[in-house]
Amino acid sequence: MKNFLLHLFFLLIILTPTQAQERSSFYATMDSNDAEKLKMELPQEIEIITTYKGQSAVLLTEYAANELQENLILHGPGYVFKGSKEQAVKSLENDFLSQTREITNFTITEDVMVNAALDLVQEINIENEILELEGYGTRYHTKTSASQAVMDLKDQWEAMALASGRSDISVRLYYHTNTNMPSVILTIEGAESPDDFIIVGGHMDSSNYSNQNDAPGADDNGSGVASVIEMSRVIIDMNFIPQKTIEFMAYAAEEIGLVGSDEIAAEYKNNNINVEAYVNFDMTNYKGSTEDVYINTDYYISTTLNNFLFDLMDHYNSSGAHQFTYGTSICNYGCSDHYSWAQQGYDAAFPFEAAFGEHNPYIHSSQDTYSITGNSEHAAKFVKLGLEFIIEAAKSQTLSTNDIIGNNFKMLIKDRKLIYQLNNLNDSINQFELFDITGKRILVVDDLQRSGEISLGNLANGFYVAVFDFDENGTLAKKFILN
Ligand SMILES: [Zn+2]
Prior knowledge:
By secondary structure, the protein is of the alpha+beta class.
């Protein structure tokens, strides 16, 4: 395939010697070896502005960008689009690899919650999402159908947020400078540490180098987006209330140089947002290698975060109903949106569907359809890894038996009774609701006194969420274990 493309490329050069030079060009950062190689092959198509520690700021024609994507690298664009020369040069000066940063020490403590989440993963949901995304025909970033796919996901996420009845879940569009396609973000605000962020994401756009009107992008990256959506569905359906803020992202314009994620990650960095970890999902449904999940080990990847992912899979997926295997692989400079987060100095990781080079060979063509894979068995493993990561990194807010919530309201679980007391004389309790781990409402009590007991005697052991609705001070949701 590579040789064929190379021949095609020289043929094009001979047939259209001036056209290539007329193509629009843009600024980017890329691996300096790739830049040198391109400069030798296509001297008219790239200008190397400056090089610093293995990265180059370049002025690149779209032609050279396509050539880079097709022939020099294994996956992804291989460069990061930058809106100006200054931004490109500044990115190199950031020198993120040399920065010392505080690394979060993640632990594995949420077995009950994680195992409940893994049981809720539905392959049929992933299948339906991929088919729906494929159905747009193309999600190339300049096409209206690409923006429509983002708007539709926004509507879908808003409906999920509304159905949950929770006020800590919100959805927003993110408009970009360098593409008309927006990104979309679902946020679950952390109940205890809202300023600490745990993020997962994947790109919504698709590409077909030979015809951008026919880019179904089922695996690249309908599968990754479908995986992220299924993670969000499970988290919301089980009424998971995190200590830290969780965000689910679907990006615009990854295929033309990580445009969506680059702008978002840069803004988070500018606003000093503490993103503790980012995990990327780009292609999850084609099993091309012996092992199931391949963890990216490029130089810009966080080793600590990778080790956490290995620990999670050793703990949750080495045996039993949710068993799968893993290996490691590399994917090069700017290979997908996790690079944008790494370039801002955040810990990022990337689990991929196969060893690089053995991944789905039909991507970036009209043949990247769901029928190639036929089921969502492979993608489900990535949803499970994502859920393990989200739940263990963000942690569940759990009420212990002697928990006291501020001075205004106290509540505790004792002898299979929920005991509560409202001390704020300016408020009263409107309603009490109890939800089980699947989000099902199993108890409603109106007209509560200022203090009292609610019997939990008949309930099975497990996780529950108690929700008090106050007349003046909103709602309070607390998770507890009954055992
Ligand atoms: Zn992709």
